[in-house]
Every structure is written in structure tokens, then in C-alpha cells.
Amino acid sequence: MNRIDRRQALALALGAGFLQNATTGAAADALSGASSLIPLNYNENPLGPGPKAREAIIAATRESWRYADGEHLQRLIAAIATHERVTPEQVAVGSGSGELLHILALGWAARGSVTCAWPTYGQLMGFAEKMGATVRRVPLDAELRHDANAIDAATPTGTSLVYLCNPNNPTGTVLPASELGDLCLTLAQRTTVVIDEAYMDFVESGATASMVHLTRGGADIVVLRTFSKVHGLAGLRVGYAIGRPDTIARIRSLELVSPNMPGVLAATASLADQIFVERSRNSVITDRRRVTAVCRELGMRCSDSYGNFVFVRTGMPATDFRDRMRELGIEVGRLFAPLTDWSRISLGRPEDNTALIAALRTLKRGGVIGRVVSISSAVRA
User: Fold this and answer.
1) Residue 335: which CATH number?
2) What is the Cα–Cα distance from 44 to 226, expressed in whole angstroms?
């Protein structure tokens, strides 16, 4: 496994001259982090960048005096366009998909309205509300999936945006490709549809599919992807949008920050490293199955997650479960109202997931978890 531990990272940083004037102790503290908890709370990829991306990051130190908005960025855009089978004019790169979500909220939804499922990843809606938008939050269905009919009914003509997260965060659930495609095309006749596919690389074959093909046909749809998950580049902040050329031109005109050179070079290299991407994907799928099986064995209800995380009903308030897991050395996700007794647990390295399973078994022996209840009773509270 091509994984660099924290001490090796520190040595690399010192060797490259990043920390010339720092004391070793202070630098080590900054890089290692203050917490000794196993971090299973942010849906990060603990494999980190692949070998080609690591080489590119090191090489980027020689280019860090340059802005990344010239030939290097155009090379990344061209690589993405080839990978997604669209034209470069259909691709916009952002500082993570987070910047692109803010751009869409600012440019499309300010003082307007947004429809979304709920709970879901809330960054676009939260920023839109700061810009004066009205947000219509549509409850998930009994299986914690997007309710296509209810979302359609909640989206009148004049709606500024519809946000769909597939696979959904925090539940990990998906809509089948045909159902999602029909919904997108119906909604796109009335408004711009944003489909966040941050976790699409972790979907098992046949469960759902990317909606990028709809953008090739000229539908008013924007698909968001990120290098933060399967590529392991969350700290370097690189994401991209795919849409119609006029939509992408508008997104580019609202760019909030400039891309960073290490991120652009690492993303370009990682896109070409399909051996690592497949290894990363398989690692997540293997341990997602393992953790889900144990949770169900312990009597915990689980959503059908296709992300790099599981979503489980714990039998106690999510905040209490979080505290109990911290006592056992593991940090899990935050509360996602109204599912107040569910917890999102990210998948870590295999040894981290083994520690997670041991912690869950400890709580089970203590009679704390495993109270079986129906999913539907919590969704429409």
C-alpha cells in the first residue's frame, strides 16, 4: 500500500523546504492533528492520493510560484472532458465542488427558490438562504431515498434550482438510473437541475448511473463531481461541473477563487491513474459490505448506502452515540435532523473499520445498540 504516514509526511515536508523555520515539535503537532480519535466523520479517503498524484504534488513545488489558471488548468479541463466524453466548453473546475455549489447558489438562486430532498448535503441550500432564497425541503421516502414524485410536485415553474444528491449524503441511497433520468428531464423543462455525484465512484454496477449523458443532449442540467473522495485529494480542493456550454460559461464568470497548482497537477495525474482509482473503489466497497453486515448482525437498521460511509440507526440520540463512540476512540458523523437517532459513519482503512466493528460490538454487549425499529417512523417526523 502506497500510504505515507504522518511522520513520513513531516519528513517529506521538511525535506522539500516547506517548514524551514518551524521547530520539529510544532511542525509535527500541526501535521498530525491534536486528536487521537480514529476520524470516521468526514467521508474522507484514508488511502490518500494515488502514487501518480503523489508524484505530481511533489513536482508541483517547483511550479508553486505560478498561478494555476493557464496551461495546467486547461490540461486538466481537457483531461476531464475526455474522461466524461464532453467538450472542454462543458467543463468548469472549482476549488472543490464546494465552490461550485456556492457559485450555483449565488448565480442562480439568490432571492429565488431551491427544491431539494431532506436530509441531504446542505451546502448549496445553506448558502442560498444567506442570499435570500427560499428552500423547499422534501422528506426522503420510507427507504431514505429521494422521493421523485414529491420533488416534482414541490417544484413549480419559476423555481431557481433543484438540487439532487445521488448517492445521497448522509444516507448513501440512490435512485435507479431510469427513474432519476426521467425526473431530471422533467424538472429541466422548468428549471436548472444540479446533480451532486460526489460518491458516484463507489456505486456498485446496476444500482444507478451518472447523469452526465443528459448534459450531452443539451438539457438544463449541471453534474458536479469531485477529486475529494475516490481520488483522495480532499485537502487540495478540486472539483468540476459538467453542463451546457452557456451554463458553464456563466459558472466560470462567477469564479470565486483561483485553483491551486498542487491540486490541479494532482487531479490531472490521478485522473490518469485508473489502477489506483479502482483499488480505492474496491477497498471502500469491500469494507462497506463488511461493516454493513456487522451492523445488521447487531440489530442496527442500515440504509442501502453506496457512498464511502454507512448510515445506521443506533437506538439512541445521535449526539449520545457520538459521545459513546468517542469514549471508545472513534469520531463519527454529526447529527442529521430529522433523523435524530441515526449516525453517518465514514469508512476508514481496513484496520480502522476493524476497530469500528469492535467498538460497535462493545456497545452491543452493553445493551446500548441494536433496538430494531422501522425506518419509516423516523423519516417524516
Assistant:
1) 3.90.1150.10
2) 12
